[in-house]
TrEMBL record:
This is PLIN3 protein. PANTHER family: PERILIPIN, PERILIPIN-RELATED. Belongs to the perilipin family. It comes from the Eukaryota. It is found in: Lipid droplet. GO terms for biological process: lipid storage; positive regulation of triglyceride storage. Its main location: other. The lineage of its organism: Eukaryota, Metazoa, Chordata, Craniata, Vertebrata.
Length: 113
């Protein structure tokens, strides 16, 4: 989970969503009160679940560690095959626009000639 969260693409999307969420809460008082209540509910459920699950997680810890190591190796291979994951959203959008513009220009040139 940490490796996924640390990917440039994922973290930049997270930042964008977080900024939009904070801006929406700030701009709309009714939405803010609903969001605040939802956040408190999620926090309570998370704390209750964590305390209940701790004995189970302690028992499963060696298995989770093995699965985590296996997933980490697979994730490293995925990162090698998809370098796009290492780019922020803004750069991906910019690169895509540039590629499309280039292809359209090539198509225009082909049609013109």
């Amino acid at each position: 989970v940490n490796q996924v969260a640390n990917l440039t693409l994922i973290s930049s999307v997270g930042d964008m969503v977080s900024t939009a969420y904070a801006s929406t809460k700030e701009s709309h008082p009714y939405i803010r009160s609903v969001c605040d209540a939802a956040e408190k509910g999620v926090k309570s459920v998370t704390e209750a679940t964590a305390s209940c699950m701790q004995p189970v997680l302690t028992t499963l810890e060696p298995h989770v560690a093995a699965a985590s190591e296996y997933a980490s190796k697979g994730f490293d291979k995925l990162g090698e095959k998809l370098p796009l994951l290492q780019k922020p959203v803004d750069q991906i959008i910019s690169d895509t626009k540039e590629l499309v513009s280039s292809r359209v220009a090539d198509a225009k040139d082909a049609v013109s000639s």
